[in-house]
Fold this sequence. Notes:
This protein is of the alpha/beta class. Helix content is about 40%, strand content about 25%.
Amino acid sequence: MKVACVGGGPAGLYFSILMKRQDPSHDITVYERNPAGSTYGWGVTYWGGMLDKLAGNDPESAAAISGNSVRWSGGTAHIRERTTTHQGDQGFGISRRTLLTVLTERAESLGVRVEFDHPVVAGAELPDADLVVAGDGVNSELRERHADHFGTDVAVGHNTYIWLGTTKLFDSFTFAFVETAHGWIWCYAYGFSADHSTFIVECSPATRTGLGLDRASEADSLALLERLFAEPLDGHRLIGRAHDDGSAQWLNFRTLTNRTWHRGNLVLLGDAAHTTHYSIGAGTTLALEDAIALAGALRGQPELGPALARYERERRSALLSVQSAARYSARWYENLPRYLHLAPPKVFALLGQRHSPLLPYIPPRLYYRIDRATERLEALRRLKRWLGPRIARTLHARPWTART
């Protein structure tokens, strides 16, 4: 098979690796619009279960990814002047640039051609191939050529966020919630190398405007954020990536879905097919799982259409619970003042329950008491597991814009 992967992100590169492992005679080219070594973002997260999946599909790249990752355990939350910790599962962080380098080198070692500085722009002919994989991200030009067919829908989040780095190395997944005269502002931080961490700051539009962050240059924005988050940063600086005009890159998260994921020999992969809110830290994992599923659907399948249909069915089903968790997680942060009047340990407990479809509809103090009780009584645990998905399905039948 002749395969063209448009987009040299983790999904496209890993898919090319798996296809070459399945059949070295596949002719595979990855087209990446950016120069080699150029990427956005800082570090990405994943969990032990993902590493096990990678090891089962390509042990060589899994070992390289593991060897270049940092590990943390549990979480820490700074709320006003108090700090609370929670023991939890081990997590992993890796520089996005390092991840792409590992996957590129592994793909090339198997005979995949990776062509950098090679955009597939709007209006240009698609690469001549039996299969064209659109792994070109949330702004996929290949998808937009046939947006009506794919049924692309984008829901823009209410809060604004900025993706930063710092030289402070966090040894746990860290949250900090700061109350200002203009409302709450908070961060998510995690290590991704021996000397750097990702530091994502989020707030409501009103808070951003009230603090002047909508008008400030990046340098002034970073200075203000360093003062606001002085405790978790512990004297370390923040690192940004300004727009060409020097302004800070504040964004609104866009949740993207598509009615269908394939058209003829063109198939969507990763963020081109779906996005999930960054607060659950699953974007890279889901992209790699897409690659595994697509390669698996094509294995031994002589007809492309049934293989692509199988891939779509499998991934849509797998994504249902993750997308639900992401939606409720984003809503939790958009309604943050509802929870922050509680004591910090209770806030942290509800932070861990933010994926629950029940939480937005039960008073926080009552939910906390119920949650503690379910830890002690098996009957209540079973009731919660039974009731939660049913409420979620009922609520998902409503338009998502009807927020409470």
